[in-house]
Amino acid sequence: MKTKTAKKTPAPGLDWTLRPRTAAGMATQSVLGMTAVSAVGNVCEMHWALGVGAGLLGAAATFVTSQRVSMTGLYYRAACWLGAGGWTAWALEAGPFHREQLGVLALGGLAAGLGAPLGRAKNDEAQQPTAAAPGTDIVLRQGGEIGMRWASYIHRVTNMWVQVTSVQPWPQGGGFTLTALLPLDGTHTVATLKGAADRLATVARLPIGCGVEVALGEHRGEAVLRVSTVNRMGDMVSLPEDYSPLSINRPLPLGMYRDGSPVTVLLRELAMLVIGARGSGKTNLLDLLTLLLLRCSDTLVWHIDMNGGGMSQVWLHPWIEGDIDRPAIDWAAPNPEEAIQMVQIAMNIARARKRTGRKLKVQADSKLLPISPGLPEIVIMVDEGKSVLAPGTRGTAGQVGKKLEEILDQARNEGVNIIASGLRATSTTVSADFKVQCGLKICGRVQKESELQYLFGWDRIDLADIPSVGCFFIQADDEEAPRPFKAAFLPPSRMTAAAVMLAEGRPRLDEAAARIGGQVYAQRHERMRAAFLALDDDEDGDVLDVEEVQEAPRRLHSVPAELGTGSAGSWANPQELRQRARTAYTPTAAPERVFTAERVDRPEPAPIRPLPPLLTAAIRAFGTDTRMHSEDLAAHLSLDNKHRLAELLGALEVYPLGHAFERGGRQRRGYERKDLEAAARAITEGRQDVPDEVYAWAS
Ligand SMILES: Nc1ncnc2c1ncn2[C@@H]1O[C@H](COP(=O)(O)OP(=O)(O)OP(=O)(O)O)[C@@H](O)[C@H]1O
Questions:
Q1: ipTM computed for the complex
Q2: Cβ of 471 less than 6 Å from ligand 1
Q3: 451 C-alpha vs ligand 1 centroid, how far in Å?
């Protein structure tokens, strides 16, 4: 009786090509070919020199055209050509089919056949057919045992037999990428495999945090499966200490996929929606996005967080404390009144740019308004969006929500974009329209799997793929399955240091837009300072007073290790951790006040030490370059000469590079930007003293 499987297995077709399959076949074909050529040559009375010429030509061509062949292989191939040429010349001269000639030919053919492995190209071996899956006709040309096993899993789950063409282990281990050809009968598409990804992970018994990601290969009949076999989602992805300029026109790095490749987002083109329950790592992700946008020399960051401006506080801290003159966040709205003014002005700016941007687009031959430091993008980041994004929200918050939808609809091209975040993804927290307008969707742990389905419009997503805090799914294309990734971790101390270093160099709103903003925009910093200082007063009163701060270290000892500095790999379910933290923090003296885990998780930032103006000016002088000659830097800082520069920077333990480098056609010694940035960090973190003479420098 024929089984269903047998019906689906493609019948092997006849192969009419003359390509030899084995070494013996190749030797036999060559011997027969030479015999035939010499017979025809004798009939046509060809000169014996033709045989010699063909042999020499073939040997020479071997050295020129052979790829991935070892030296021994090249000599082997050349020897075959010379042997064949010599024998053919002999046969042309003496006439074919003498007994000695045929004997020599047979011996030569045997020797060539035995030596064939020497001449094989380096990956030929891998292309040899390996064993077929038991009971099937499939031939796994590559992929070996793993490929066979996965072809069998795929068959078990989808009832289709694929041909695995390669299995490539990931460079850093922890999984492999498998490429497979789908059956030629057209009964299945890559979508079948996409829909079966979580079942495949189950059948393969992959560990928690591991899974299968399916993508289209080089053509419609090829599928690529990224299979993770070691849970790397618990690893900490640390952020390189780099504050060099970026651009909103280029992809920005957010973290790492399971296969170790970077996750990047192109925010010039797409709005973003970030969803995650409390404790999912959403705040860290928003902080990371803020940092990346602050590094963009062509982007202004506007924050809306109507729940007390929490998203902006650490970033504004050095400015509120008077350590820097300009806030890193260009505009922060901690209440609905400020937020509505912000979104109205943003929309007005977009409308004006629509009218005036035509020429710029034509000049730049671009459909999108060309964004640059002189015409910056405005990115409005909205945290805890439920209060504004939920359909039916009334009052000022509701108006803010409507305006944000309008911006999403109409302003992206004109360089006004939105990153919104919320705790839940349901039809009552984020409207379907808003969701659709956000081309980039990111979701961390949420209360229900149905929220993932609502957000991504994708049926089979498993929360087991994002097992720990800081893990998210990302989707930039509704047709593609969301991919799990681990966000890079940004410690709060790095945020304050970055705010100090980046604030001064932030771009300014273009004049036309600033005019539209009028007095409301011009006076935003006064209102921000007053609003955030008022929030400080509220918080101090409600949450933590001085005695409690002194009490806190004693209570901290009872916090579960996972919430301290323990390794990320050991994190348990975030909800559970938060519950345990709450228990550990239940105060004995004042039961009505409960210190939440957030307090523990987000320690107060270290005190900021002002950066010497000399250093900030020097860092700015590099622009987008990484190195600068000493003479140029000294001139930029209006210093008498490079020796004075060396004295002042040397006092901050910043020294010129030990070798000369080329800039502007000249080879000179000079400084590296990252050394100056490291000194700035050391100063803000209190590791480096600043002598008075360095502070005394004025531009
Ligand atoms: N990508 C990450 N890698 C490692 N640790 C992280 C990561 N993201 C967050 N954490 C840690 O997890 C804890 C919770 O993170 P975070 O505050 O970002 O969560 P949240 O979802 O915003 O929660 P809440 O809304 O309560 O603030 C923090 O202590 C933070 O140190």
A1: 0.96
A2: no
A3: 20
> Is the minimum distance from the CB of 598 to ligand 1 under 6 angstroms?
yes
CATH topology of domain 129-228: Threonyl-tRNA Synthetase; Chain A, domain 2 (3.30.980)
**Rounded-to-integer distance, Cα 673 and Cα 622, Å:** 7
b/e burial code for range 316-355 (CB count within 10 A of at least 16 → b): bbbbbeebbeebbbbbbbbbbebbbbbbbbbbebbeebee
Joined tokens for residue 174: 């922890």
**Domain spanning 237-535, CATH architecture:** 3-Layer(aba) Sandwich (3.40)
Task: Give me the long-range contacts of 461-466 (CB less than 8 A, separation at least 24).
Answer: 461/198, 462/198, 462/201, 462/211, 464/208, 464/209, 464/211, 465/209, 465/211, 465/233, 466/209, 466/233
Give the class (CATH, top level) of 613-695: mainly alpha
Q: Is 290 helix (H, G, I), strand (E, B) or coil?
A: helix
Whether 472 lines ligand 1, by a CB cut-off of 6 Å, is no
Percent of the chain with pLDDT over 90: 40
Q: List phi, psi (to 5°) of 235.
A: -70, 150
Examine the pLDDT at 529 and tell me if it is beyond 90: yes
Q: Establish whether residue 279 lines the binding site of ligand 1, counting it when its CB lies within 6 angstroms of any ligand atom.
A: yes
Domain residues of the chain, as ranges?
23-125, 129-228, 237-535, 613-695
- Residue 278 CB less than 6 A away from ligand 1: yes
Residue 668, φ and ψ in degrees, nearest 5: -140, 170
Atom of ligand 1 nearest to the CA of 491: 31
Rounded Cα distance, 140 and 142, in Å = 5
Min mean pLDDT across 292-301, 414-423, 574-583, 616-625 is at 574-583
Could you identify the atom of ligand 1 that is nearest to the CA of residue 310?
27
CA of 255, closest atom in ligand 1? 1
Please state the atom number of ligand 1 nearest to the C-alpha of residue 276: 21
- Residue 226 CA to ligand 1 center (angstroms) comes to 27
Would the CB of 221 count as within 6 Å of ligand 1?
A: no
Cβ 284 under 6 angstroms from ligand 1: yes
Distance CA 571, CA 582 (A): 16
Instruction: Please tell me the distance from the alpha carbon of residue 18 to that of residue 29, in angstroms, as a whole number.
Output: 9
Ligand 1 site, residue 282, Cβ cutoff 6 A: yes
427 Cα: distance to centroid of ligand 1 (angstroms):
25
Q: Is the pTM of this model over 0.80?
A: no
R_g (Cα) of the chain, nearest Å: 34
416-422/377-382 β-pairing = parallel
N-to-C CA span, the chain:
91
Could you read off the pLDDT of 650-681 as tens digits, one per residue? 999 999 998 999 998 999 999 998 888 888 87
Q: How many CB atoms lie within 10 A of CB 121?
A: 13
Amino acid type, 622 = F
